[in-house]
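Support request from a user on the community tier.

User writes: "When I paste my structure tokens into the form, the page sometimes reloads and wipes my input. The last time it worked, I copied everything first. Here is what I submitted, just in case something in the input itself triggers the reload:"
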């Protein structure tokens, strides 16, 4: 924290600590803590019909978003990020429905494209109240974008999950 941050207060929240994540081969972990939503009930038709790949969505209990797999950050936008996994799985994490319209307001990204992350590392933080006040839903979707390239994908999470808990198992 710099002098001006101490004097005037920092507008950027503190970077969260990494969470313990399931490191089993082929595991795709929950990027947030919260309640798992039934896929066809996701409030965005593109994600609900899994047009981009197999999807699991979580209604978050807080605004901390972590890497669901280990790999290279392929893209890092305020509301979404992609990771090319060390084991060949490609994952997109998308925060909210239509939150792209917020132009990054209320979002803090902790990584850059090209960075290597481990499952459970903090990737971004978002202000749930700002998302709600802007009229958007803050559901967080985890999409395996290369689903067709994988032999199998099992959705294993239900109910409430902790960030870092297994959402999907790939083979």
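"...and here is what came back when it finally went through:"
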């Amino acid at each position: 924290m710099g002098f001006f941050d101490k004097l005037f207060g920092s507008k950027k929240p503190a970077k969260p600590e990494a969470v313990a994540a399931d490191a089993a081969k082929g595991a795709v972990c929950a990027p947030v803590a919260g309640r798992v939503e039934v896929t066809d009930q996701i409030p965005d038709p593109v994600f609900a019909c899994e047009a981009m790949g197999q999807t699991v969505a979580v209604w978050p209990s807080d605004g901390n978003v972590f890497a669901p797999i280990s790999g290279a950050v392929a893209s890092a936008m305020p509301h979404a990020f992609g990771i090319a996994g060390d084991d060949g799985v490609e994952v997109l994490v998308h925060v909210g429905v239509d939150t792209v319209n917020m132009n990054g307001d209320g979002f803090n990204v902790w990584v850059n494209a090209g960075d290597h992350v481990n499952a459970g590392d903090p990737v971004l933080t978002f202000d749930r109240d700002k998302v709600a006040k802007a009229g958007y839903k803050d559901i967080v979707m985890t999409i395996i974008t290369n689903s067709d390239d994988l032999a199998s994908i099992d959705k294993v999470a239900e109910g409430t999950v902790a960030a870092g808990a297994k959402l999907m198992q790939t083979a």
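Agent notes: The reload is a front-end session timeout and is unrelated to the input. The mean pLDDT is 94. The CA atoms of residues 1 and 7 lie 10 Å apart. Escalated to web team.
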